[in-house]
Amino acid sequence: MDGGRAELRSKLERLLEEVATVSVALSRADGTIKGVPHYSVIEEHAHQLGRHLSCLVQVRQAQNVVTSQPRRHRCPHCQAICDVEISDRKLTSIDGDVTMSELVGHCHECRRDFFPSARNAGPRCP
After folding, report:
1. Residue 27 placed within a domain
2. For residue 110, what are the domain limits?
3. What is the pLDDT of residue 117?
4. Would you give the DSSP letter of residue 119?
5. Rounded Cα–Cα distance for residues 90 and 18 (Å)
6. End-to-end Cα, the chain, rounded Å
7. Greater confidence, 68 or 122?
8. What's the CA gap between 25 and 20, in Å, rounded?
9. Number of H-type helices and E-type strands within the chain
């Protein structure tokens, strides 16, 4: 399994190098950076790219959590087993706006909506 992790780390490093190269070329091509820029301009451009990457990672991580959860959960109010759906909602993270996926359930017994977390995912006996 360590070989798999090492391969993924290597792939990530290669992709980040490529992203950096493309970002620098794009900033020159679109005129964001001209001539010899002040270092603060270079740094701000890098931070913008980092914030964008952060938002993409946050969305992907949330999608992985949601898609790995069962589609039936117990209602936290009456304990009836209910179907849940994946729903999107907009959030503002410290790095920018993101659209996150989350599980949403509606109990037909007690007519309440609920949002199961990964911690208590899936039908469980009381």
Report:
1. no
2. 38-120
3. 74
4. G
5. 30
6. 37
7. 68
8. 9
9. 2, 4
Q: How far apart are CA 121 and CA 89, in angstroms?
A: 20
User: Does any domain span residue 65?
Assistant: yes
Separation between Cα atoms, residue 35 and residue 40, nearest integer Å: 14
Determine the pLDDT at residue 3.
83
Instruction: Name the nearest CA neighbour of 84 among 64, 59, 63, 102.
Output: 102
Domain count, the chain: 1
Residue 61 reports pLDDT greater than 80: yes
pLDDT at residue 119 in the model? 57
One-letter amino acid for residue 90 of the chain: K
Q: How many residues does the chain have?
A: 126
Residue 28 lies in a domain: no
pLDDT at 122 over 50: no
Report yes or no: 124 and 74 within 8 Å, Cβ to Cβ: yes
The tokens describing 2, both together, are 């360590």
Q: Give the separation between CA 24 and CA 10, rounded to whole angstroms.
A: 21
Q: Which residues contact 48 (CB under 8 A, 6 or more apart)?
A: none
Query: What is the spatial distance between Cα 110 and Cα 80, in angstroms, rounded to a whole number?
Result: 9
Q: Give the ranges where 30-94 is alpha helix by DSSP (H).
A: 39-67
